[in-house]
Amino acid sequence: MVRLGFIIGFIALIGALLSGLAAYRVHDQELIVDGIAMARAIDVHASLVQDRLTERELLARVASGLFRAPSVIKANMLQPLRASIYAFKTDFVVASWIARLQPGELEAARKDLASEKFPNPSIRNFDDKPLDRQSLDRPVDVLMDVEPRNAATGAFPGRSYSLHPVLGPMFARAMTAGKPVASDPMPLLRSDGPVGVVLAAPVLPDGAAQPAGFVTFSYELAPLMLANDDLSLFSVALKDPNSADQELVATDRDHVGSRIVAPDAPPPSMVRTVSFGDRDWSLAYYAKNNAMMRARQTAAIVAAIGLALTGIVCGLFGYVAYNNLRLSREIQVRIGFERRLTAVIDELNHRVKNILAVIQSIVTRTLRHGADIDVARDLLIGRIHAMSNVVTLLSESQWQGVKLKGLFEARAVPHAERIAVSGPDIVVSARAAQSLSLLFFELASHSDEGLSLVGKHPHITAHWQVTGDEPEMTFHFRWEEFNTSAATRREDSDFGLILLDRVAPEALGGAAKRYFTDVSYVYELTAPMETVVDMTERDRSEQFSAPVRPPR
To answer: How many CB atoms lie within 10 A of CB 505?
Structure first.
Protein backbone atom coordinates (compact mmCIF):
# COMPACT_ATOMS: atom_id res chain seq x y z
CA MET A 1 0.00 0.00 0.00
CA VAL A 2 2.89 2.37 0.80
CA ARG A 3 4.55 1.65 -2.56
CA LEU A 4 1.27 2.19 -4.40
CA GLY A 5 0.75 5.50 -2.69
CA PHE A 6 4.30 6.58 -3.51
CA ILE A 7 3.80 5.83 -7.20
CA ILE A 8 0.50 7.75 -7.30
CA GLY A 9 2.07 10.71 -5.52
CA PHE A 10 5.12 10.78 -7.79
CA ILE A 11 3.02 10.73 -10.97
CA ALA A 12 0.67 13.38 -9.61
CA LEU A 13 3.61 15.58 -8.57
CA ILE A 14 5.24 15.44 -12.00
CA GLY A 15 1.92 16.19 -13.72
CA ALA A 16 1.12 19.06 -11.36
CA LEU A 17 4.57 20.61 -11.82
CA LEU A 18 4.34 20.49 -15.62
CA SER A 19 0.79 21.86 -15.59
CA GLY A 20 1.77 24.66 -13.22
CA LEU A 21 4.80 25.63 -15.31
CA ALA A 22 2.71 25.80 -18.48
CA ALA A 23 0.00 27.81 -16.73
CA TYR A 24 2.60 30.23 -15.30
CA ARG A 25 4.09 30.88 -18.75
CA VAL A 26 0.68 31.43 -20.33
CA HIS A 27 -0.32 33.78 -17.49
CA ASP A 28 2.78 35.98 -17.95
CA GLN A 29 2.41 36.11 -21.72
CA GLU A 30 -1.24 37.14 -21.49
CA LEU A 31 -0.40 39.96 -19.06
CA ILE A 32 2.43 41.23 -21.26
CA VAL A 33 0.29 41.25 -24.41
CA ASP A 34 -2.64 42.97 -22.65
CA GLY A 35 -0.30 45.53 -21.09
CA ILE A 36 1.27 46.46 -24.43
CA ALA A 37 -2.13 46.76 -26.13
CA MET A 38 -3.49 48.89 -23.27
CA ALA A 39 -0.48 51.22 -23.22
CA ARG A 40 -0.63 51.80 -26.97
CA ALA A 41 -4.36 52.50 -26.93
CA ILE A 42 -3.99 54.95 -24.03
CA ASP A 43 -1.10 56.78 -25.71
CA VAL A 44 -3.11 57.16 -28.90
CA HIS A 45 -6.13 58.50 -26.99
CA ALA A 46 -4.04 60.96 -24.93
CA SER A 47 -2.32 62.18 -28.12
CA LEU A 48 -5.67 62.77 -29.84
CA VAL A 49 -6.98 64.66 -26.80
CA GLN A 50 -3.85 66.84 -26.73
CA ASP A 51 -4.18 67.61 -30.45
CA ARG A 52 -7.81 68.53 -29.96
CA LEU A 53 -6.95 70.84 -27.05
CA THR A 54 -4.08 72.45 -28.95
CA GLU A 55 -6.38 73.25 -31.89
CA ARG A 56 -8.89 74.96 -29.64
CA GLU A 57 -6.20 76.92 -27.84
CA LEU A 58 -4.82 78.02 -31.21
CA LEU A 59 -8.31 79.18 -32.19
CA ALA A 60 -8.44 81.36 -29.07
CA ARG A 61 -5.01 82.87 -29.83
CA VAL A 62 -5.98 83.65 -33.43
CA ALA A 63 -9.29 85.16 -32.34
CA SER A 64 -7.65 87.41 -29.74
CA GLY A 65 -5.07 88.55 -32.29
CA LEU A 66 -7.73 89.84 -34.68
CA PHE A 67 -8.87 92.57 -32.28
CA ARG A 68 -7.21 95.90 -33.06
CA ALA A 69 -10.16 98.31 -32.69
CA PRO A 70 -9.43 101.37 -30.57
CA SER A 71 -12.74 101.07 -28.71
CA VAL A 72 -13.98 97.89 -27.05
CA ILE A 73 -17.30 99.23 -25.81
CA LYS A 74 -19.23 97.53 -28.54
CA ALA A 75 -21.98 94.93 -28.43
CA ASN A 76 -21.03 93.51 -31.84
CA MET A 77 -17.29 93.00 -31.37
CA LEU A 78 -17.52 89.40 -32.57
CA GLN A 79 -18.88 90.44 -35.97
CA PRO A 80 -15.48 90.29 -37.74
CA LEU A 81 -14.81 86.88 -36.16
CA ARG A 82 -18.05 85.12 -36.91
CA ALA A 83 -16.96 83.76 -40.27
CA SER A 84 -13.39 83.12 -39.14
CA ILE A 85 -14.09 81.13 -36.01
CA TYR A 86 -16.52 78.84 -37.79
CA ALA A 87 -13.80 78.09 -40.32
CA PHE A 88 -11.71 76.51 -37.56
CA LYS A 89 -13.87 74.46 -35.20
CA THR A 90 -17.59 74.70 -34.61
CA ASP A 91 -17.87 72.47 -31.53
CA PHE A 92 -17.82 75.32 -29.00
CA VAL A 93 -21.01 75.88 -27.03
CA VAL A 94 -20.75 79.65 -26.95
CA ALA A 95 -18.13 82.30 -27.80
CA SER A 96 -18.22 85.67 -26.12
CA TRP A 97 -16.50 89.04 -25.87
CA ILE A 98 -15.75 90.17 -22.32
CA ALA A 99 -14.85 93.86 -22.18
CA ARG A 100 -12.77 95.19 -19.30
CA LEU A 101 -14.58 98.47 -18.51
CA GLN A 102 -13.87 101.34 -16.19
CA PRO A 103 -16.74 102.46 -13.89
CA GLY A 104 -17.27 105.57 -16.07
CA GLU A 105 -17.73 103.45 -19.20
CA LEU A 106 -20.66 101.38 -17.92
CA GLU A 107 -23.35 103.79 -19.15
CA ALA A 108 -21.91 103.83 -22.64
CA ALA A 109 -21.81 100.02 -22.59
CA ARG A 110 -25.47 99.91 -21.55
CA LYS A 111 -26.49 102.15 -24.45
CA ASP A 112 -24.55 100.05 -26.95
CA LEU A 113 -26.17 96.86 -25.62
CA ALA A 114 -29.58 98.49 -25.96
CA SER A 115 -28.81 99.39 -29.56
CA GLU A 116 -28.16 95.70 -30.29
CA LYS A 117 -31.64 94.81 -28.98
CA PHE A 118 -30.46 92.50 -26.21
CA PRO A 119 -33.31 91.60 -23.79
CA ASN A 120 -31.68 93.22 -20.75
CA PRO A 121 -29.03 95.84 -21.63
CA SER A 122 -28.47 96.96 -18.01
CA ILE A 123 -25.06 96.32 -16.45
CA ARG A 124 -25.55 93.83 -13.60
CA ASN A 125 -23.82 91.10 -11.64
CA PHE A 126 -23.27 87.58 -12.97
CA ASP A 127 -26.27 86.36 -10.95
CA ASP A 128 -28.53 88.89 -12.77
CA LYS A 129 -28.79 91.12 -9.68
CA PRO A 130 -28.27 94.93 -9.91
CA LEU A 131 -24.67 96.16 -9.82
CA ASP A 132 -23.77 98.73 -7.17
CA ARG A 133 -21.90 101.28 -9.30
CA GLN A 134 -21.23 103.62 -6.39
CA SER A 135 -18.91 101.07 -4.74
CA LEU A 136 -16.87 100.36 -7.89
CA ASP A 137 -13.26 101.51 -7.70
CA ARG A 138 -11.68 99.23 -10.30
CA PRO A 139 -12.45 97.84 -13.78
CA VAL A 140 -15.11 95.20 -14.21
CA ASP A 141 -15.35 92.41 -16.79
CA VAL A 142 -18.66 92.78 -18.66
CA LEU A 143 -20.00 90.38 -21.32
CA MET A 144 -20.76 92.53 -24.38
CA ASP A 145 -21.32 90.07 -27.23
CA VAL A 146 -22.05 86.34 -27.71
CA GLU A 147 -22.02 83.85 -30.55
CA PRO A 148 -24.38 82.26 -31.37
CA ARG A 149 -27.14 84.69 -30.49
CA ASN A 150 -30.25 82.77 -29.51
CA ALA A 151 -32.80 82.51 -26.71
CA ALA A 152 -30.32 80.64 -24.48
CA THR A 153 -27.47 83.15 -24.82
CA GLY A 154 -29.37 86.44 -25.38
CA ALA A 155 -29.83 87.05 -21.63
CA PHE A 156 -26.08 86.97 -20.84
CA PRO A 157 -24.83 90.30 -22.35
CA GLY A 158 -24.62 93.03 -19.72
CA ARG A 159 -23.53 90.71 -16.89
CA SER A 160 -20.33 91.38 -14.98
CA TYR A 161 -18.25 88.28 -14.24
CA SER A 162 -15.50 89.86 -12.13
CA LEU A 163 -16.99 88.35 -8.97
CA HIS A 164 -17.93 84.99 -10.48
CA PRO A 165 -16.41 82.20 -8.32
CA VAL A 166 -14.97 80.38 -11.37
CA LEU A 167 -14.71 82.92 -14.19
CA GLY A 168 -13.45 85.79 -12.03
CA PRO A 169 -10.21 84.03 -10.97
CA MET A 170 -9.79 82.77 -14.56
CA PHE A 171 -9.85 86.34 -15.96
CA ALA A 172 -7.37 87.44 -13.30
CA ARG A 173 -4.96 84.63 -14.26
CA ALA A 174 -5.38 85.35 -17.98
CA MET A 175 -4.59 89.02 -17.43
CA THR A 176 -1.46 88.13 -15.44
CA ALA A 177 -0.27 85.37 -17.82
CA GLY A 178 -1.06 87.28 -21.02
CA LYS A 179 -2.11 84.08 -22.80
CA PRO A 180 -5.16 81.79 -23.01
CA VAL A 181 -6.22 80.35 -19.63
CA ALA A 182 -8.78 77.61 -18.96
CA SER A 183 -11.31 77.65 -16.12
CA ASP A 184 -12.25 74.89 -13.72
CA PRO A 185 -15.03 72.54 -14.90
CA MET A 186 -18.42 74.22 -14.48
CA PRO A 187 -22.00 73.99 -15.82
CA LEU A 188 -22.47 75.90 -19.07
CA LEU A 189 -25.39 78.21 -20.01
CA ARG A 190 -27.44 77.29 -16.91
CA SER A 191 -27.05 75.72 -13.48
CA ASP A 192 -28.12 72.28 -14.78
CA GLY A 193 -26.40 72.63 -18.13
CA PRO A 194 -23.65 70.41 -19.52
CA VAL A 195 -20.36 70.43 -17.65
CA GLY A 196 -17.58 72.12 -19.58
CA VAL A 197 -14.60 74.46 -19.45
CA VAL A 198 -14.19 78.07 -20.57
CA LEU A 199 -11.04 79.17 -22.40
CA ALA A 200 -10.31 82.90 -22.06
CA ALA A 201 -7.74 84.65 -24.31
CA PRO A 202 -6.72 88.22 -23.31
CA VAL A 203 -6.91 90.89 -26.05
CA LEU A 204 -4.04 93.40 -26.05
CA PRO A 205 -4.60 96.39 -28.37
CA ASP A 206 -1.54 97.82 -30.16
CA GLY A 207 0.71 99.60 -27.70
CA ALA A 208 -1.38 98.65 -24.65
CA ALA A 209 0.11 97.07 -21.52
CA GLN A 210 -3.16 95.78 -20.05
CA PRO A 211 -5.76 93.69 -21.85
CA ALA A 212 -8.84 95.48 -23.10
CA GLY A 213 -10.94 92.36 -22.64
CA PHE A 214 -11.12 88.66 -23.29
CA VAL A 215 -12.35 86.41 -26.03
CA THR A 216 -13.83 83.26 -24.48
CA PHE A 217 -14.84 79.91 -25.92
CA SER A 218 -16.90 77.42 -23.89
CA TYR A 219 -16.54 73.70 -24.63
CA GLU A 220 -18.39 70.70 -23.28
CA LEU A 221 -16.04 68.55 -21.24
CA ALA A 222 -17.29 65.17 -22.48
CA PRO A 223 -16.39 65.50 -26.22
CA LEU A 224 -13.36 67.64 -25.41
CA MET A 225 -11.45 65.30 -23.07
CA LEU A 226 -13.61 62.30 -22.18
CA ALA A 227 -14.72 61.16 -25.65
CA ASN A 228 -14.03 57.46 -26.04
CA ASP A 229 -14.88 54.59 -28.36
CA ASP A 230 -17.36 52.06 -26.99
CA LEU A 231 -15.11 49.25 -28.24
CA SER A 232 -11.97 50.62 -26.59
CA LEU A 233 -10.11 48.72 -23.91
CA PHE A 234 -10.52 51.42 -21.28
CA SER A 235 -12.74 54.13 -19.86
CA VAL A 236 -11.34 57.59 -19.21
CA ALA A 237 -11.93 59.93 -16.26
CA LEU A 238 -10.70 63.44 -15.51
CA LYS A 239 -9.18 64.14 -12.12
CA ASP A 240 -11.19 66.97 -10.57
CA PRO A 241 -8.76 69.90 -10.16
CA ASN A 242 -10.72 71.13 -7.14
CA SER A 243 -10.87 67.81 -5.24
CA ALA A 244 -8.17 65.17 -5.01
CA ASP A 245 -10.64 62.39 -4.20
CA GLN A 246 -13.13 63.05 -7.03
CA GLU A 247 -13.20 62.29 -10.75
CA LEU A 248 -15.32 63.55 -13.65
CA VAL A 249 -16.68 60.83 -15.95
CA ALA A 250 -18.90 60.87 -19.03
CA THR A 251 -22.07 58.79 -19.24
CA ASP A 252 -23.47 57.06 -22.30
CA ARG A 253 -25.27 60.27 -23.34
CA ASP A 254 -22.12 62.44 -22.95
CA HIS A 255 -23.36 63.82 -19.64
CA VAL A 256 -20.57 64.48 -17.19
CA GLY A 257 -20.94 63.47 -13.56
CA SER A 258 -18.70 63.45 -10.52
CA ARG A 259 -17.80 60.38 -8.51
CA ILE A 260 -15.83 59.95 -5.28
CA VAL A 261 -12.72 57.77 -5.44
CA ALA A 262 -12.63 55.64 -2.31
CA PRO A 263 -9.24 55.25 -0.59
CA ASP A 264 -9.40 51.48 -1.04
CA ALA A 265 -10.59 51.62 -4.67
CA PRO A 266 -8.34 50.04 -7.32
CA PRO A 267 -6.01 52.62 -8.91
CA PRO A 268 -6.30 53.50 -12.61
CA SER A 269 -4.33 51.44 -15.09
CA MET A 270 -2.48 54.54 -16.30
CA VAL A 271 -2.54 58.33 -15.83
CA ARG A 272 -1.69 60.76 -18.62
CA THR A 273 -1.31 64.55 -18.39
CA VAL A 274 -2.43 66.95 -21.13
CA SER A 275 -1.93 70.74 -21.31
CA PHE A 276 -4.75 73.15 -21.99
CA GLY A 277 -5.25 76.76 -21.05
CA ASP A 278 -1.96 77.23 -19.16
CA ARG A 279 -2.63 74.30 -16.82
CA ASP A 280 -2.20 70.54 -16.68
CA TRP A 281 -5.13 68.11 -16.70
CA SER A 282 -4.76 64.51 -15.45
CA LEU A 283 -6.63 61.81 -17.35
CA ALA A 284 -7.10 58.52 -15.49
CA TYR A 285 -7.56 55.41 -17.63
CA TYR A 286 -9.37 52.38 -16.22
CA ALA A 287 -9.29 49.05 -18.01
CA LYS A 288 -12.75 47.80 -18.94
CA ASN A 289 -11.63 44.19 -18.81
CA ASN A 290 -9.72 42.67 -15.95
CA ALA A 291 -6.50 41.59 -17.64
CA MET A 292 -5.37 39.76 -14.52
CA MET A 293 -8.62 37.80 -14.36
CA ARG A 294 -8.47 36.88 -18.05
CA ALA A 295 -4.85 35.78 -17.72
CA ARG A 296 -5.78 33.69 -14.71
CA GLN A 297 -8.68 32.11 -16.59
CA THR A 298 -6.44 31.21 -19.51
CA ALA A 299 -3.80 29.84 -17.18
CA ALA A 300 -6.48 27.91 -15.32
CA ILE A 301 -7.65 26.31 -18.57
CA VAL A 302 -4.11 25.24 -19.40
CA ALA A 303 -3.57 23.94 -15.89
CA ALA A 304 -6.91 22.12 -15.97
CA ILE A 305 -5.98 20.32 -19.18
CA GLY A 306 -2.68 19.22 -17.68
CA LEU A 307 -4.28 18.14 -14.44
CA ALA A 308 -6.99 16.27 -16.35
CA LEU A 309 -4.35 14.24 -18.13
CA THR A 310 -2.65 13.60 -14.80
CA GLY A 311 -5.98 12.62 -13.28
CA ILE A 312 -6.65 10.06 -15.99
CA VAL A 313 -3.32 8.38 -15.23
CA CYS A 314 -3.88 8.46 -11.47
CA GLY A 315 -7.60 7.62 -11.58
CA LEU A 316 -7.40 3.90 -10.99
CA PHE A 317 -4.83 4.27 -8.24
CA GLY A 318 -6.84 7.11 -6.65
CA TYR A 319 -9.97 4.98 -6.57
CA VAL A 320 -8.30 2.51 -4.25
CA ALA A 321 -6.97 5.31 -2.04
CA TYR A 322 -10.42 6.96 -1.92
CA ASN A 323 -12.10 3.76 -0.75
CA ASN A 324 -9.54 3.38 1.99
CA LEU A 325 -10.06 6.99 3.10
CA ARG A 326 -13.84 6.59 3.14
CA LEU A 327 -13.57 3.48 5.29
CA SER A 328 -11.26 5.30 7.67
CA ARG A 329 -13.70 8.20 8.00
CA GLU A 330 -16.59 5.87 8.72
CA ILE A 331 -14.58 4.29 11.51
CA GLN A 332 -13.74 7.73 12.93
CA VAL A 333 -17.42 8.73 12.80
CA ARG A 334 -18.38 5.57 14.68
CA ILE A 335 -15.74 6.25 17.32
CA GLY A 336 -16.90 9.86 17.66
CA PHE A 337 -20.52 8.74 17.95
CA GLU A 338 -19.64 6.31 20.72
CA ARG A 339 -17.73 9.00 22.58
CA ARG A 340 -20.65 11.41 22.21
CA LEU A 341 -23.08 8.74 23.38
CA THR A 342 -20.95 8.09 26.45
CA ALA A 343 -20.81 11.79 27.24
CA VAL A 344 -24.58 12.15 26.79
CA ILE A 345 -25.24 9.18 29.09
CA ASP A 346 -22.91 10.67 31.72
CA GLU A 347 -24.67 14.02 31.47
CA LEU A 348 -28.08 12.33 31.66
CA ASN A 349 -27.00 10.37 34.73
CA HIS A 350 -25.81 13.58 36.33
CA ARG A 351 -29.09 15.38 35.69
CA VAL A 352 -31.20 12.40 36.79
CA LYS A 353 -29.21 12.19 40.03
CA ASN A 354 -29.80 15.90 40.62
CA ILE A 355 -33.54 15.51 40.02
CA LEU A 356 -33.73 12.44 42.30
CA ALA A 357 -31.80 14.28 44.97
CA VAL A 358 -34.26 17.19 44.78
CA ILE A 359 -37.25 14.80 44.92
CA GLN A 360 -35.68 12.95 47.85
CA SER A 361 -35.25 16.24 49.68
CA ILE A 362 -38.87 17.18 48.90
CA VAL A 363 -40.23 13.87 50.19
CA THR A 364 -38.04 13.89 53.30
CA ARG A 365 -38.96 17.40 54.36
CA THR A 366 -42.62 17.13 53.36
CA LEU A 367 -43.23 13.87 55.24
CA ARG A 368 -41.25 14.90 58.30
CA HIS A 369 -42.18 13.41 61.67
CA GLY A 370 -45.39 14.88 63.07
CA ALA A 371 -46.68 16.38 59.80
CA ASP A 372 -50.39 16.21 58.98
CA ILE A 373 -50.60 13.33 56.47
CA ASP A 374 -53.40 14.90 54.36
CA VAL A 375 -51.69 18.26 54.08
CA ALA A 376 -48.31 16.62 53.49
CA ARG A 377 -49.78 14.41 50.77
CA ASP A 378 -51.24 17.39 48.89
CA LEU A 379 -48.01 19.32 49.23
CA LEU A 380 -45.93 16.34 48.14
CA ILE A 381 -48.08 15.71 45.06
CA GLY A 382 -48.03 19.40 44.12
CA ARG A 383 -44.27 19.69 44.50
CA ILE A 384 -43.66 16.56 42.44
CA HIS A 385 -46.08 17.90 39.80
CA ALA A 386 -44.10 21.15 39.71
CA MET A 387 -40.87 19.19 39.21
CA SER A 388 -42.54 17.00 36.55
CA ASN A 389 -43.79 20.09 34.71
CA VAL A 390 -40.36 21.71 34.55
CA VAL A 391 -38.72 18.44 33.41
CA THR A 392 -41.33 18.17 30.63
CA LEU A 393 -40.64 21.73 29.51
CA LEU A 394 -36.89 21.11 29.56
CA SER A 395 -37.27 17.91 27.55
CA GLU A 396 -39.32 19.74 24.92
CA SER A 397 -36.55 22.33 24.55
CA GLN A 398 -33.78 19.68 24.60
CA TRP A 399 -32.61 21.12 27.94
CA GLN A 400 -31.87 24.49 26.32
CA GLY A 401 -33.83 26.32 29.03
CA VAL A 402 -37.44 27.25 29.77
CA LYS A 403 -39.36 30.47 29.21
CA LEU A 404 -40.10 31.93 32.62
CA LYS A 405 -43.80 32.46 31.87
CA GLY A 406 -44.11 28.76 31.05
CA LEU A 407 -43.55 27.89 34.72
CA PHE A 408 -46.92 29.44 35.66
CA GLU A 409 -49.09 26.70 34.14
CA ALA A 410 -52.25 25.64 35.98
CA ARG A 411 -51.10 22.01 36.32
CA ALA A 412 -47.96 23.07 38.19
CA VAL A 413 -49.02 26.19 40.16
CA PRO A 414 -52.17 26.33 42.36
CA HIS A 415 -54.61 29.20 41.82
CA ALA A 416 -52.91 30.00 38.48
CA GLU A 417 -56.07 31.76 37.30
CA ARG A 418 -55.66 34.37 40.04
CA ILE A 419 -52.03 35.16 39.26
CA ALA A 420 -51.29 38.19 37.07
CA VAL A 421 -47.94 37.42 35.44
CA SER A 422 -45.84 40.21 33.84
CA GLY A 423 -42.22 40.65 32.84
CA PRO A 424 -39.83 40.17 29.91
CA ASP A 425 -40.02 36.80 28.14
CA ILE A 426 -36.60 35.51 29.22
CA VAL A 427 -35.37 31.91 29.02
CA VAL A 428 -33.91 30.59 32.27
CA SER A 429 -31.46 27.71 32.61
CA ALA A 430 -32.45 24.18 33.63
CA ARG A 431 -31.07 24.58 37.15
CA ALA A 432 -32.79 27.93 37.65
CA ALA A 433 -36.05 26.52 36.21
CA GLN A 434 -36.14 23.70 38.78
CA SER A 435 -35.59 26.08 41.70
CA LEU A 436 -38.07 28.69 40.43
CA SER A 437 -40.74 26.05 39.69
CA LEU A 438 -40.63 24.82 43.31
CA LEU A 439 -40.52 28.43 44.52
CA PHE A 440 -43.65 29.42 42.55
CA PHE A 441 -45.53 26.32 43.76
CA GLU A 442 -44.56 27.00 47.36
CA LEU A 443 -45.74 30.60 47.18
CA ALA A 444 -49.01 29.73 45.43
CA SER A 445 -49.83 26.72 47.64
CA HIS A 446 -49.74 28.82 50.82
CA SER A 447 -51.83 31.70 49.55
CA ASP A 448 -55.14 32.20 51.36
CA GLU A 449 -57.62 29.58 50.22
CA GLY A 450 -60.56 31.00 52.18
CA LEU A 451 -62.02 34.45 52.33
CA SER A 452 -59.79 37.30 53.41
CA LEU A 453 -60.66 40.02 55.88
CA VAL A 454 -62.44 42.02 53.15
CA GLY A 455 -64.36 39.01 51.85
CA LYS A 456 -62.37 38.38 48.68
CA HIS A 457 -59.86 35.85 47.51
CA PRO A 458 -56.32 37.21 47.38
CA HIS A 459 -55.27 38.79 44.10
CA ILE A 460 -51.74 37.65 43.24
CA THR A 461 -49.21 39.42 41.00
CA ALA A 462 -45.92 37.92 39.84
CA HIS A 463 -43.62 40.45 38.21
CA TRP A 464 -39.96 40.34 37.23
CA GLN A 465 -37.54 42.65 35.47
CA VAL A 466 -33.90 42.83 34.42
CA THR A 467 -31.78 45.87 35.25
CA GLY A 468 -28.22 46.96 34.57
CA ASP A 469 -25.89 46.40 31.65
CA GLU A 470 -23.92 43.34 30.64
CA PRO A 471 -22.12 41.61 32.26
CA GLU A 472 -23.60 42.91 35.54
CA MET A 473 -27.31 42.52 34.74
CA THR A 474 -29.56 41.71 37.72
CA PHE A 475 -32.80 39.69 37.85
CA HIS A 476 -35.53 41.06 40.18
CA PHE A 477 -38.63 38.97 41.06
CA ARG A 478 -41.55 40.18 43.17
CA TRP A 479 -44.53 38.08 44.38
CA GLU A 480 -47.36 40.01 46.04
CA GLU A 481 -50.66 38.68 47.45
CA PHE A 482 -53.24 41.44 47.97
CA ASN A 483 -56.21 41.20 50.34
CA THR A 484 -54.30 39.02 52.76
CA SER A 485 -52.54 39.39 56.07
CA ALA A 486 -50.51 37.43 58.57
CA ALA A 487 -53.75 36.38 60.23
CA THR A 488 -55.45 34.97 57.13
CA ARG A 489 -52.55 33.53 55.14
CA ARG A 490 -51.63 29.90 55.73
CA GLU A 491 -48.37 29.67 57.63
CA ASP A 492 -45.41 28.52 55.51
CA SER A 493 -44.11 25.04 56.24
CA ASP A 494 -40.57 24.39 57.42
CA PHE A 495 -39.63 23.14 53.98
CA GLY A 496 -41.27 26.19 52.42
CA LEU A 497 -39.33 28.56 54.65
CA ILE A 498 -36.07 26.81 53.86
CA LEU A 499 -36.88 26.91 50.12
CA LEU A 500 -37.91 30.57 50.18
CA ASP A 501 -35.15 31.92 52.39
CA ARG A 502 -32.17 29.72 51.60
CA VAL A 503 -32.46 27.05 48.89
CA ALA A 504 -33.83 29.15 46.00
CA PRO A 505 -31.62 32.23 46.66
CA GLU A 506 -28.48 30.10 47.08
CA ALA A 507 -29.24 28.10 43.90
CA LEU A 508 -29.42 31.39 41.94
CA GLY A 509 -26.58 33.08 43.81
CA GLY A 510 -28.84 35.86 45.08
CA ALA A 511 -30.82 37.01 48.10
CA ALA A 512 -34.51 36.95 49.12
CA LYS A 513 -36.82 38.59 51.64
CA ARG A 514 -40.49 38.28 52.58
CA TYR A 515 -42.71 40.57 54.56
CA PHE A 516 -46.30 41.78 55.10
CA THR A 517 -47.53 45.24 54.15
CA ASP A 518 -50.79 46.81 55.20
CA VAL A 519 -52.68 45.11 52.38
CA SER A 520 -50.46 42.33 51.03
CA TYR A 521 -47.86 39.64 51.50
CA VAL A 522 -44.62 40.23 49.50
CA TYR A 523 -41.77 37.94 48.53
CA GLU A 524 -38.78 39.41 46.66
CA LEU A 525 -35.85 37.60 45.05
CA THR A 526 -32.77 39.23 43.53
CA ALA A 527 -30.07 37.30 41.62
CA PRO A 528 -27.44 37.92 38.94
CA MET A 529 -28.59 37.16 35.39
CA GLU A 530 -25.50 35.05 34.67
CA THR A 531 -26.85 32.38 37.06
CA VAL A 532 -30.48 32.75 36.03
CA VAL A 533 -29.49 32.35 32.35
CA ASP A 534 -26.56 29.92 32.52
CA MET A 535 -24.96 30.10 29.05
CA THR A 536 -22.37 27.46 29.97
CA GLU A 537 -25.11 24.92 30.68
CA ARG A 538 -26.94 25.86 27.45
CA ASP A 539 -23.78 25.56 25.34
CA ARG A 540 -23.11 22.12 26.81
CA SER A 541 -26.68 21.03 25.97
CA GLU A 542 -26.33 22.33 22.40
CA GLN A 543 -23.08 20.41 22.04
CA PHE A 544 -24.74 17.18 23.15
CA SER A 545 -27.80 17.72 20.93
CA ALA A 546 -25.78 18.55 17.81
CA PRO A 547 -25.54 15.77 15.19
CA VAL A 548 -22.30 13.87 14.88
CA ARG A 549 -20.32 14.91 11.81
CA PRO A 550 -17.35 13.14 10.30
CA PRO A 551 -13.98 14.81 10.86
CA ARG A 552 -12.58 16.82 7.98
So the answer is: 19
Instruction: Give the domain ranges of the chain.
Output: 68-289, 351-542
DSSP string, 496-541: HHHIIIIIHHHHHT-EEEEEE-SSEEEEEEEEEHHHHS-HHHHHHH
pLDDT interval class at 411 (50, 70, 90): low
Statement: 68-289 belongs to CATH 3.30.950.10: no
Q: Identify the band that residue 454 occupies on the pLDDT scale cut at 50, 70 and 90.
A: very low
Residues 6+ apart with CB under 8 A from 550: 329, 330, 332, 333, 336
Buried-exposed string 133-159: b where 16+ CB fall within 10 A, e elsewhere:
eeebeebbbbbbbbbebeeebeebbbb
Distance in angstroms (rounded) separating the CA atoms of residues 336 and 238: 63
Nearest to residue 147, comparing CAs of 158, 157, 134, 133?
157
Cα–Cα distance measured from residue 261 to residue 265, given in angstroms and rounded to the nearest whole number: 7
CA distance between the termini of the chain: 22
Treating both helix axes as pointing N-terminal to C-terminal, what angle do 430-445 and 373-396 enclose, rounded to 10 degrees? Answer: 150
Number of C-beta neighbours around residue 424 at 10 A:
10
Q: Which class is 351-542 in CATH?
A: alpha beta
The closest of 407, 431, 428, 412 to 350, measured between CA atoms, is 431
Beta bridge partners of 526: 476, 511
Q: How many CA atoms lie within 13 A of 76 on its CB side?
A: 8
Q: Note the pTM of the prediction, 2 decimals.
A: 0.53
Task: Provide the 10 A C-beta neighbour count for residue 272.
Answer: 18
